[in-house]
């Protein structure tokens, strides 16, 4: 091993053992990727572009939503088949940063190509295909990004650093959405990007999102050193990597089965959390009649509430433990989501006044955002307490990949519920029943989590090597 590689290896080992203080510059650069990624998460897949794709211009909310759900389900299946070994191979091959850059560039390119999705039904397939492929490469990039957490933090601050990343993501989403609102959706001044002809303003949002993500993804590629190749790691073919993955999972299951149980539970309920953001804007527009500007206003408030929830969740996490926070959050999500499902867009007389459908969505939708934050942050903190010294990178990589291994569940159940409801309810009402599919995934994750042993802060796990 050459001197540079030896120094990099020693530095990585020291960071994982918690001996030095992590570099603030590297943490900021790492979190900048999360800030930039909000342009894809919040703008493209949640509150703006998917809302555009499921509008009447593409054939109507119900039909377009079902097509979008199908495309995302197929993307989730591709992630489940490919993501687990892509992270493993980039780690053992010393190419973590390289593949983070390649996959990020692919997401930016696919996002930019959404500019060519014109508001006509024959462009629906192109639009959902680009979004679905973007999701695949985004998750591949996320595998490498999350695995970097152990490189830029120590065991003493890994939870704080992880939470800071989540916070930057929420804040980046707010800023990106405000810019999109002021420049494209409800422009403050007249310029060519404000034109609504052929939905030019919305298609330009895709170009903005691509550039936003690409620019803020650059710092981590310069600030964080490449992971050196482990000299004792075997050189395996692509399919042989699946064999190694299975052996590692079996070895962990023999000595620390509750680690596997938690990975399974979190994979399920995090898919439900992702679906809330993916389909939240779609439901707001299609079921509750929100205009695009109203969806963006809700998104801004929702990100603020989610950030507050993550901070509060972290406060309780240190006092009652991450499992209790996750269980309480999932229970809150189920109650809020069920309220939206059953109340719908109907108007009710309540305490001498009128309770409108928009009030239902604002009230219980913000409650959903409040509980999503702590569920996400405490889930990562849970695993941080399980991660043994010297093995945290691999375990977080496994966490990231398993988190998307079942990512087809929520989109598939969302689509199935809409399909089943379509002949049974009035036109335009079927989309709302997609919420039932998301709630089913969250409930399944909660039930799997309940018997899982909470992490013991006084023990340091030692996960075996196969």
UniProtKB/TrEMBL annotation:
<feature type="transmembrane region" description="Helical">
    <location>
        <begin position="204"/>
        <end position="224"/>
    </location>
</feature>
<keyword id="KW-0812">Transmembrane</keyword>
<dbReference type="InterPro" id="IPR020846">
    <property type="entry name" value="MFS_dom"/>
</dbReference>
<keyword id="KW-0813">Transport</keyword>
<dbReference type="InterPro" id="IPR024671">
    <property type="entry name" value="Atg22-like"/>
</dbReference>
<feature type="transmembrane region" description="Helical">
    <location>
        <begin position="324"/>
        <end position="343"/>
    </location>
</feature>
<feature type="transmembrane region" description="Helical">
    <location>
        <begin position="295"/>
        <end position="317"/>
    </location>
</feature>
<feature type="region of interest" description="Disordered">
    <location>
        <begin position="1"/>
        <end position="20"/>
    </location>
</feature>
<feature type="transmembrane region" description="Helical">
    <location>
        <begin position="260"/>
        <end position="283"/>
    </location>
</feature>
<feature type="transmembrane region" description="Helical">
    <location>
        <begin position="124"/>
        <end position="143"/>
    </location>
</feature>
<feature type="transmembrane region" description="Helical">
    <location>
        <begin position="164"/>
        <end position="184"/>
    </location>
</feature>
<feature type="domain" description="Major facilitator superfamily (MFS) profile">
    <location>
        <begin position="1"/>
        <end position="457"/>
    </location>
</feature>
<dbReference type="GO" id="GO:0005886">
    <property type="term" value="C:plasma membrane"/>
</dbReference>
<dbReference type="InterPro" id="IPR050495">
    <property type="entry name" value="ATG22/LtaA_families"/>
</dbReference>
<feature type="transmembrane region" description="Helical">
    <location>
        <begin position="98"/>
        <end position="118"/>
    </location>
</feature>
<dbReference type="GO" id="GO:0022857">
    <property type="term" value="F:transmembrane transporter activity"/>
</dbReference>
<feature type="transmembrane region" description="Helical">
    <location>
        <begin position="433"/>
        <end position="452"/>
    </location>
</feature>
<dbReference type="InterPro" id="IPR036259">
    <property type="entry name" value="MFS_trans_sf"/>
</dbReference>
<feature type="compositionally biased region" description="Polar residues">
    <location>
        <begin position="10"/>
        <end position="20"/>
    </location>
</feature>
<dbReference type="Pfam" id="PF11700">
    <property type="entry name" value="ATG22"/>
</dbReference>
<feature type="transmembrane region" description="Helical">
    <location>
        <begin position="396"/>
        <end position="421"/>
    </location>
</feature>
<keyword id="KW-0472">Membrane</keyword>
<feature type="transmembrane region" description="Helical">
    <location>
        <begin position="355"/>
        <end position="375"/>
    </location>
</feature>
<feature type="transmembrane region" description="Helical">
    <location>
        <begin position="27"/>
        <end position="52"/>
    </location>
</feature>
<protein>
    <submittedName>
        <fullName>UMF1 family MFS transporter</fullName>
    </submittedName>
</protein>
<feature type="transmembrane region" description="Helical">
    <location>
        <begin position="64"/>
        <end position="86"/>
    </location>
</feature>
<keyword id="KW-1133">Transmembrane helix</keyword>
């Amino acid at each position: 091993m050459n001197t540079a590689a030896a120094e990099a290896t020693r530095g990585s080992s020291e960071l994982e053992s918690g001996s030095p203080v992590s570099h603030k510059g590297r943490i900021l650069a790492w979190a900048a990727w999360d800030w930039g990624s909000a342009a894809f998460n919040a703008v493209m897949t949640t509150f703006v572009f998917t809302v555009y794709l499921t509008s009447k211009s593409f054939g109507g909310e119900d039909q377009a939503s079902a097509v979008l759900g199908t495309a995302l389900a197929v993307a989730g299946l591709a992630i489940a088949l490919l993501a687990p070994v892509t992270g493993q191979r980039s780690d053992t091959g010393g190419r973590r940063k390289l593949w983070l850059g390649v996959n990020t560039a692919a997401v930016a390119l696919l996002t930019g190509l959404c500019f060519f999705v014109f508001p006509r039904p024959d462009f629906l397939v192109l639009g959902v295909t680009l979004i679905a492929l973007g999701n695949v490469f985004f998750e591949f990039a996320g595998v490498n990004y999350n695995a970097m957490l152990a490189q830029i933090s120590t065991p003493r601050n890994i939870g704080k650093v992880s939470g800071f990343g989540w916070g930057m993501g929420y804040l980046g989403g707010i800023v990106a959405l405000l810019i999109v609102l002021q420049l494209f959706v409800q422009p403050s001044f007249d310029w060519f990007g404000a034109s609504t002809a052929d939905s030019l303003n919305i298609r330009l949002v895709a170009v903005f999102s691509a550039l936003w993500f690409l620019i803020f993804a650059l710092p981590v590629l310069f600030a964080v050193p490449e992971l050196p190749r482990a000299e004792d790691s075997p050189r395996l073919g692509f399919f042989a990597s699946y064999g190694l993955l299975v052996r590692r999972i079996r070895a962990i299951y023999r000595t620390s089965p509750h680690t596997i149980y938690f990975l399974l539970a979190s994979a399920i309920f995090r898919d439900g959390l992702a679906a809330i953001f993916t389909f939240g804007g779609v439901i707001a527009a299609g079921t509750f009649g929100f205009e695009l500007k109203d969806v963006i206003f809700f998104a801004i408030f929702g990100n603020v509430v989610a950030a507050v929830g993550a901070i509060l969740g972290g406060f309780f996490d240190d006092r009652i433990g991450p499992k209790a926070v996750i269980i309480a959050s999932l229970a809150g999500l189920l109650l809020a989501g069920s309220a939206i499902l059953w109340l719908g867009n109907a108007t009710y007389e309540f305490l001498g006044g009128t309770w409108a459908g928009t009030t239902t969505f604002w009230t219980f939708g913000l409650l959903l955002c409040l509980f999503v934050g702590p569920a996400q942050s405490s889930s990562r903190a849970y695993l941080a307490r399980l991660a043994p010294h010297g093995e945290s990178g691999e375990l977080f990589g496994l966490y990231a990949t398993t988190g998307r291994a079942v990512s087809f569940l929520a989109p598939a159940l969302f689509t199935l519920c809409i399909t089943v409801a379509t002949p049974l309810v009035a036109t335009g009402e079927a989309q709302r029943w997609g919420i039932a599919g998301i709630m089913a995934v969250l409930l399944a994750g909660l039930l799997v989590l309940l018997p899982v042993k909470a992490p013991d802060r006084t023990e340091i796990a030692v996960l075996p090597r196969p």
